[in-house]
Amino acid sequence: MNHFPIILRWRLGPGLSLAPKAETELALTLADGRIVTLKPSTIGLRDALLAMVEGADEQHLLALTGGNGGAMLHHYIAKLVAGGIVEVSADNGAVPLIRLIPLQIEFSLPRAEALPQRVMLNRFAYLRRSARGATLQHPDAPFEVLIEDEACGRLITGLASGPRDICSLTGALDHALLALLVSPGFVVDADVEEPPAGQSWEFHDRLFHRTTRSHNDRLARGGTYRFLDQWPAPPAIRPRYPGQRIALPPVPLPSSSSTPLRDVMENRRSRRDMSAQPVSIADISLLLHRVARVKEVHSGSQSIPQETLLRAYPSAGAIHELEFYLAIRCCDQLNPGFYHYNGQEHTLTLISNAETAAAGMVAECAASWGQAEQPPHAVVVITSRLPRLAWKYAGIAYRMSLLNAGVAIQSLYLTAADLGLSGCAIGTGNSDLFAQATGASSWEETSIAEFGFGRSA
Q1: Between 2.60.40.10, 3.40.109.10, 3.10.150.10, 3.40.50.720, what CATH number should domain 222-455 receive?
Q2: SS (H, E, C) the chain
């Protein structure tokens, strides 16, 4: 494959080593110290695999196999790519320019594309610091680009500032590098308008979607307990706030007066009509008890090494990282302010000096509803203690928290409807107001969903 003057070489990834073990066996030492034995069928294939230690282009590897082992060589390369063992170094002679780090399990070397007359960086591409250095990424690309040469970095950042005419790039090296980045989508034709479907995706939405859903890639997702040996899991029950503790009215046992679930679901509506009479503390007690109370606390075990909870709604791994707060505007027995709900005790704690922030949350809700002059009586603010969820789940923790919040919002809708309350979620919310109210770091806990409600008009 011609990328002159760039040479593409297969290389072992960092922290890996490969050495002869027997006549046709190789010892592959992984980054964690484990040793895997490879058994290539011929000495030529063994020599080709060994050549990857120092880096070798595909033509040289094929020559080492004797010309008849091409299919088996590509089979081995595919297996090594899938295992994260090998990468591709794009070099100018002996000088490394960029490193192509495969993400997809089924990976092939990029084609040298013909360049359009004007090029620019794809608006979904982004440059960030990774553990290995400056890395160019794109949600839909089959590999990420580790930048090893400053000149390449300047070329890429220059493309981010706007379209560049190819004729202004006179060096063959620049042209060859751009040709490598066109086929995976890092670089695009500046004169081709993005189709409507593409325009509808915002950068953060596309990145979030691609990185938190399973694809044919090597990204770790799911319950890996990645911090098990690094720091203890945050406790299931949030530490109490200082301040006045208010016991909510006892909740009566379930009775036949509750509407059948089918009817509640059929008749549920987003209702924003508020009565002049404030919501009662009894209704607040019922709403929180049905949705957010803690029924059981389970200590960790060998198979589940962290505390879990049982609540009325499901949660990823029963971790229940969500917390529930109330921003009160008017209630028959609660003063305006911001309250934390303790689902284990069925109590509220008034958070001091948070009245202004709470009023802001209520006003944000009313503005989101399009009725600034008719705000809700109260707003349920749902927060995520994300480190508790991320302690177990790699790659999908925030996604799981949003899904959990969606389930909680639906529970609030149905319960409010059954209680005859008006209620409606909002699509935005202001996490800064929560931080102002509590002093909590957004890295530790942040608001992710809100539900305004009150006595129905």
Answers
A1: 3.40.109.10
A2: CCCCCEEEEEEECCCCEEEEEECCEEEEECCCCCEEEECCCCHHHHHHHHHCCCCECHHHHHHHCCCCCHHHHHHHHHHHHHCCCEEEEEEECCEEEEEEEECECCCCCCCCCCCCCEEEECCCCEEEEECCEEEEECCCCCEEEEECCHHHHHHHHHHHCCCEEHHHCCCHHHHHHHHHHHCCCCEEECCCCCCHHHHCCCHHHHHHHHHHCCCCECCCCEECCCCCCCCCCCCCCCCCCCCCEEECCCCCCCCCCCCCHHHHHHHCCCCCCECCCCECHHHHHHHHHHHHCEEEEECCCCCCCCCEEEECCCCHHHCCCEEEEEEECCECCCCCEEEEEECCCCEEEEECCCHHHHHHHHHHHHHHHCCCCCCCCEEEEEEECHHHHHCCEECCHHHHHHHHHHHHHHHHHHHHHHHCEEEEECCCCCHHHHHHHHCCCCCCCEEEEEEEEEEEC
